[in-house]
């Protein structure tokens, strides 16, 4: 049996640019990533997403302005954990990105996204996100540098996806 752990992942968009953060510590250290983390027991997923964004790069978003664009799952060979990652995006935000203890933020033009310094799965699903598509992805890793198998499905609606999962 896999133990599910819930995470958020937020991408801020501005014209043809996307904001990424260079993770300075912890899980995914030394990789460019979206902003996010674990959902605490006293908060909604959207509140967690807005809180982590603020903590990691000092930008403010209203939870209601975050659009759920994807659902990602990660499993690791020989490990009992399933990372359940809710991905959000918005171009409505306040403030200027600032470096924190955890992240160094930087805007990237779409064609300059540094996939060589990101999680291996990112280059498989970023094209969906950058084209404004909604999607589900599952990636099964061996260690952190090898994907043993994966699946990506484009979705019509996130709401329908979650309703469908509940009934299964
Ligand atoms: N393969 C992957 N590709 C990707 O793009 N993002 C991933 C990923 N695997 C995990 N993530 C994201 C999800 C989440 O935003 C982040 C991991 O969260 P963290 O461990 O940083 O959580 P916390 O900030 O709550 O942790 P603490 O530093 O322990 O408080 O990495």
UniProtKB/TrEMBL annotation:
GO molecular function: 8-oxo-7,8-dihydroguanosine triphosphate pyrophosphatase activity; dATP diphosphatase activity; metal ion binding
PROSITE patterns xref list: NUDIX
Domain Nudix hydrolase, chain residue ranges per copy: 1-134
InterPro entries named among the record's database cross-references: 8ODP, NUDIX_hydrolase-like_dom_sf, NUDIX_hydrolase_dom
Cofactor: Mg(2+)
E.C. designation(s): 3.6.1.56
Keywords, ordered alphabetically: Hydrolase, Magnesium, Metal-binding
The reaction(s) this protein catalyses: O(6)-methyl-dGTP + H2O = O(6)-methyl-dGMP + diphosphate + H(+); 8-oxo-dATP + H2O = 8-oxo-dAMP + diphosphate + H(+); 2-oxo-ATP + H2O = 2-oxo-AMP + diphosphate + H(+); 2-oxo-dATP + H2O = 2-oxo-dAMP + diphosphate + H(+)
Enzyme class of the recorded protein, top EC level: hydrolase
Gene Ontology cellular component list: cytoplasm
UniProt cross-references to CDD domains, sorted A to Z: NUDIX_MTH1_Nudt1
GO biological process, one term: DNA protection
Family: Belongs to the Nudix hydrolase family.
Task performed by this protein: Oxidized purine nucleoside triphosphate hydrolase which is a prominent sanitizer of the oxidized nucleotide pool. Catalyzes the hydrolysis of 2-oxo-dATP (2-hydroxy-dATP) into 2-oxo-dAMP. Also has a significant hydrolase activity toward 2-oxo-ATP, 8-oxo-dGTP and 8-oxo-dATP. Through the hydrolysis of oxidized purine nucleoside triphosphates, prevents their incorporation into DNA and the subsequent transversions A:T to C:G and G:C to T:A. Also catalyzes the hydrolysis of methylated purine nucleoside triphosphate preventing their integration into DNA.
Subunit annotation: Monomer.
Protein name, as recorded: Oxidized purine nucleoside triphosphate hydrolase
Gene: HaOG213206
């Amino acid at each position: 049996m896999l133990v599910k752990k819930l995470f958020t992942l937020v991408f801020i968009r501005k014209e043809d640019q996307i904001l990424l953060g260079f993770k300075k510590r912890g899980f995914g250290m030394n990789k460019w990533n979206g902003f996010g983390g674990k959902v605490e027991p006293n908060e909604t997923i959207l509140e967690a997403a807005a809180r982590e964004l603020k903590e990691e790069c000092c930008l403010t978003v209203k939870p209601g302005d975050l659009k759920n664009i994807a659902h990602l799952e990660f499993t690791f060979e020989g490990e009992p954990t399933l990372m359940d990652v809710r991905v959000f995006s918005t171009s409505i935000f306040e403030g200027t990105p600032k470096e924190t203890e955890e992240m160094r933020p930087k805007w990237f033009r779409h064609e300059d996204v540094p996939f060589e310094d990101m999680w291996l799965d990112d280059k498989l699903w970023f094209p969906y996100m950058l084209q404004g598509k909604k999607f589900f992805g599952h990636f099964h890793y061996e260690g952190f540098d090898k994907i043993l198998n994966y699946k990506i499905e484009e979705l019509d609606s996130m709401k329908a996806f979650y309703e469908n999962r509940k009934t299964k």
